[in-house]
Each structure stands twice: as C-alpha cells, then as structure tokens.
Amino acid sequence: MKKLFFVVLLLAVAAAVGWQFRGKFRKSDEGLRLFGNVDIRGVDLGFRVGGRLLEVLKDEGDAVKAGELLAKIDRLPYEHELARAKAELAAAQADLDLKKSGYRSEEIDQARAQLEAARIVEKNAEKVRERQAGLMGGGGTSQQNLEAADATLEEAKQQMKVAAARLKQLESGFRIEEIAAATAKAAQAKAACDAAALRLQDTSLESPSDGIVLTRTLEPGAIVQPGATVMSLSLEHPVWVRAYVHEPDLGKFPPGTKVLLVTDGRPDRPFHGKVGFVSPRAEFTPKSVETPELRTSLVYRLRIVVADADGSLRQGMPVTVSLDPSPE
Fold first, then answer.
1. What is the pTM of this model?
2. Does a structural domain hold residue 19?
3. Are residues 100 and 187 in the same domain?
4. Is residue 236's pLDDT more than 70?
5. Pairing mode, strands 69-73 and 204-206
6. φ/ψ (deg, to 5) at 185
7. Are residues 175 and 213 in the same domain?
8. In the chain, which ranges are E strands?
9. pLDDT tens-digit series, residues 125-143
C-alpha cells in the first residue's frame, strides 16, 4: 500500500514539473512578440491662392480617391487675371514678330524715293554753285550770292547723307539688341501668363491620395487665405506600425523581415507586413508600449509596412507583432 502511495505521489510531482516546463516550452515555441501601435499619416489640405470659398464637396468621414475634387473657390478674379495676361502676351509676341521680320517693304521704297529726291536736290545745288562761281569772275554776281549757293549745296549734301542712312537702316532691319529686348519681354509675358493659369488651376482643391476626411474646418462663403487649412485627410496608404524591440532580439528583425500583425478586434485574422526601417538609435520604451520588460529599458524603433491593410486599422490602435513562420 505504501509503495503504491509513493508511486502516485511521484507521478503527481512529475506531472506538476512537466506542466511547468511545458508552459515554458510552449511560450518559447510561440516565438518572440513585440507590441506597437498603428501609425497612419495625415495631411492638412488648403489652397495656394486666396479667395471666397465657393463650394465644399466632402464632409467628415467621407472616403476620397486620389485626384478627386474636394473644394472650390471663386474662379472669376483669376479668370480675369488670365485674360489680361494672355492679352499682354499677344502684344509682346506681336512686337517680337515685328522686330524679327524687319521694316515693311513700303517703308523701304519710300526711303529710296527720299534718297533719290535728295540726290536731285544735291545735283541742282551743285549747278547753281557752279553758275554763281562762273559769274563771279566777270562781276555778274556778288560774293554773298556765291556764299548762299555754297550753303545750299552743303545742306543738300547733308540731306543726301540723312536719306542714305535712313535707307540703310530700313534695309538692315532692327538691331540685335532690340530683338533681344523684345524676346525677353515676350518670355516675361509668357511666364506671367503661365503663372496666371496656375493660379486659376489652384482654385480647385484635389485630394493628393486615397484617404478619409477627418475634419472640415471651413464652410462656403468664407474668405480663405493662402495656405489656410480647409480640411484634414487621413491617408490610407501607406499604413505603418510603430513597434519597439530590445537589443538582444534586434537581429531577428532586419529590414525586409516578414511579420504578422494581430489586433484585439480580429485576433484570428492577422495582417501581414514587412519591417521597412530599423532605427539606428536606441531610446527608452515609450509609455504607450505594453511590454513585459521594464519601461526604462532601451529599445530600437521599428517601422513595419502593412501589406494588406483593409481600412479597419486606425491611428494609435495597439498591435501585437510576431515573426511570420511562412516560408519566403
């Protein structure tokens, strides 16, 4: 009887010890677990130009797609600005075309006719001067008349030079410097026109990516200043998890490591992700991270990119991270 009692007692002690070690081994088999939180980026959206808010097309909680129109401000002032810029561009371009094409043929023909008329006047002045000089020797004219003939001839020669220079200018066209100045003015007008077109385009606020509207800060009729926040958007992609790992386990989570992400709301359906970034600097464990180790322990921050986020992950949601046992 005593022998049977000792056998039963020995079996009970062995079972207790085995259960204790079984718990330790099972915990080891479960693998390393990290704890972190979902990190979803957001963006404050606003107009690059100011004006009267005409329409807000989305409300808080609405899902939006990249490129979708969210709000508009009054376009009329910017349409007028663009029309004025286009008119100035047309005038500058016309002046440049004029400078490049040179003077009209009618102007050149007129300059040739003026040169020919000046040449005839010069020849006539030469004859008058010769006649006065011939009469001077016989006393048929006075010194005063000869001097007047000389002055008329000199004036005719100068008019001839002016007409010749004018014709040469018209035939040569505009100077290189004048064409360069006209080109610069046309480029300046083109830049002003492009800027006006961009400001007109900026009267429409579009979503930069897929997301959900978090806040709507202004309503139609409000005067919006450039850069003022009209609404805030929570981006759907990328979705990250910020987790922390202790130095002894750091080598198990290099960049590219596949992991499983479990939330309290769906413990039986883990998300999948990859370690995208490992901080090179150690830091103290944040108070928001629940780990079995001391909170004053030094850890390294991981950024895990969630591959199959479906919209159920929310900013700050706690997540349990473990190594993905599936093969690469």
1. 0.62
2. no
3. yes
4. yes
5. antiparallel
6. -65, -40
7. no
8. 33-46, 51-56, 63-64, 69-73, 204-206, 211-216, 223-224, 229-246, 258-262, 271-284, 298-306, 318-323
9. 888 777 777 777 666 667 7
Q: Please give the Cα distance from 64 to 214 (Å, whole number).
A: 11
- Distance CA(109)–CA(171), nearest Å, equals 10
Please give the residue range of the domain that contains residue 296: 30-40+236-323
The string of DSSP letters for 30-63 reads T--EEEEEEEEEEEEEE-SS-EEEEEE---TT-E
Residue 4 confidence (pLDDT) above 60: no
Whether 9 maps to a domain, the answer reads no
Q: Are residues 105 and 136 in the same domain?
A: yes
**Distance between the two ends of the chain, CA-based, in angstroms?**
59
Question: Looking at the structure, do residues 217 and 300 belong to the same domain, yes or no?
Answer: no
Do residues 303 and 277 lie in contact, with contact meaning Cβ atoms separated by under 8 Å? yes
Cα Rg for the chain, rounded, in angstroms?
46
Last residue of a domain, one of 175, 197, 219: 197
CB atoms inside a 10 Å sphere around CB 225: 11
| Residue whose tokens read 């159920």 | 312
Cα distance between residue 15 and residue 21, in whole Å = 10
Query: For the residues of 73-110, what is the DSSP string, one character each?
Result: E--HHHHHHHHHHHHHHHHHHHHHHHHHH-S-HHHHHH
* CATH number for 274: 2.40.30.170
Compute the C-alpha angle 296/299/304, nearest 5°.
135
β-pairing verdict for 63-64 and 298-306: unpaired
